[in-house]
Write a structure and sequence with these properties.
Elements: H1 20-26, H2 40-53, H3 71-78, H4 87-107
Helix pairs in contact: 2-4
Amino acid sequence: MASELWQRKAGQNPKGGLNAAGARSAGVKTGVKNYSSASDKDKRRWISWARRFAAADNIPPLTKPNGEPTRFALMFTAWGEAVPKTEADVRAVAKKALVRKDALDRKDGRK
């Protein structure tokens, strides 16, 4: 039985994240590249992504043994962030998400 497209190279963007076909196969939207020009709904998607992946307890390896970035590290480019080199870089994205969430909540009158 063939695996879903998003699980194979055909559904993955070599620069990080999924391509359009892979995203359709997984039933998700592609990453929000430009946070500043995104809609409020897409901004909340970016915040949700950052809190799930950058604030996780166990950060997967960021580089392969040959020094190339892993798919996890490349995923950050699909969301408009630089490829993280260290765990501190990943945690900085999580902190950025908290700041952005507070700003968006204040704008929407949630706080």
